[in-house]
Amino acid sequence: MLFNSPVFVVAFLPLCLGLFALAGWRFGPRAALVVLLAASLVFYGWWKPVFLPLLAGSIVGNYVWVRVMRRAMRRKPLLVAGLAANLGLLGWFKYAGLFAATGASLFGARAPDLGIVLPLGISFFTFQQIMYLVDSYRDETPECGFVDYACFVGFFAHLLAGPIVRPREIVPQFVRHDGRVRSGDLVAGIEMFLLGLAKKLVLADSLARFADPGFRAAAAGHPLSLVEAWVALLAYGAQIYFDFSGYSDMAIGLARMIGIRFPLNFRSPYQARDISDFWRRWNITLSGFLRDYLYIPLGGNRHGEARRNANLMITMLLGGFWHGAAWSFLAWGGLHGIYLIVHQQWRRFGGQMGARLAQGITLLAVLVAWVPFRAESLRASWIMLRGLCGAGGLLLPDLIVKAVPALRLVATPVAVLPYLGAARTMSVVQGVALVGLAWGIILLAPDVHSLRVRGRNAALIAGFAFSVQALFFAPFARPFIYFQF
């Protein structure tokens, strides 16, 4: 079930909120949380009920294991065993197929079909439980009942794609919850949900119509011209931001509806002044997880320059690989590792540059790194990168060449970029205008989290978002980019 699907918006969500409030009013806060947990299990099992035992077993197993670990004389072996079990489960479902295929290709054999289907949200609920294990080992998380813990892990608002919430921030909120739905929280949550929905439906899904064809062409081995490659990349860079930040807005809004405060996950990341600043603004909860549960335990910057650089690279490589079972994700993480190391060395030797130039270089580096993240293979990444450098030539829409005739000396005019196909209803000029509008919003406007929407603005936003719903609902809801990570 998707947040942007009709069944969720008009059926599941109102029913869940109504039953939650009714249970809290009639039977008390524990009953309300039981309703929330049951609704979350229905939400998770909507796609494939067969994976419900996996989620339930993971939650029960980790809760019992933590209780045993808290009372043990020697905790560390139990911590290691718990981490190994969680990572082993994630590794089997997410990476066994990749390693089997890679090993088979090295020996010239046919890749075996392991028949593994990746369960939804396994990357996210695994990280949630790893945090709880580690924080319990450190005595940084208060003990709680099973229902509180199960809601912390399985709450449908963040179960599939985050944000990754800290146990010490969220578990106490469930423990203290009084089972009531307050009007102020409900209104604030609806506002945030609708803003995220508008991001997804108006911008992300429209931008995908210009990003997808270019990357599909590269995956098929077709060379791309300079304009084609840059239109596709700029469209994707804006798409992934509006798609994922829109999802995060909706998740934060859904939690707020019942009085749970999730942390911010985006803060105008493309306005970052350097690559370190980018990672303090992009997917903030994942960045914090990688820093506190991987980079710092590896040694952080406590053991000299060489060790710090190695720790940065390991952290980013593993962070990239966590995103998906493909070597291109490892390349994306490696690129960001290189960026961070270069930035650290620049700062170490006192390098300086103007703020606008630094922001431009950072944005360019981030966009280039999106190529392997989005491309279907390393070969497709190479084709796209060649196109970005102009190795595939320069093609411009006919309207632009007519407006500036001198461009005929360097460019071949085309009515529609070749990879888009003649059946497309939008012209390239319209696509460029849409991409330009999206980037104008990204670079000039504050992130939605910075907006404090109240009073009459709420009605305007609600009317706008519901109009968008009516106009843009296709026969099927387009999945979020992070839907099955």
TrEMBL record:
Belongs to the membrane-bound acyltransferase family. InterPro entries: Ac/AlaTfrase_AlgI/DltB, AlgI, MB_O-acyltransferase, MBOAT_fam. Signal peptide: none annotated. Pathway: Glycan biosynthesis; alginate biosynthesis. The chain crosses the membrane at residues 7-26, 46-66, 78-96, 116-134, 146-166, 321-342, 354-373, 379-396, 428-446, 458-477. It comes from Acidiphilium acidophilum. GO terms for cellular component: plasma membrane. GO terms for molecular function: acyltransferase activity. It is found in: Cell membrane. This is Probable alginate O-acetylase AlgI. One of its GO terms (biological process) is alginic acid biosynthetic process. It comes from the Bacteria. It is a multi-pass membrane protein. Keywords: Acyltransferase, Alginate biosynthesis, Cell membrane, Membrane, Transferase, Transmembrane, Transmembrane helix.
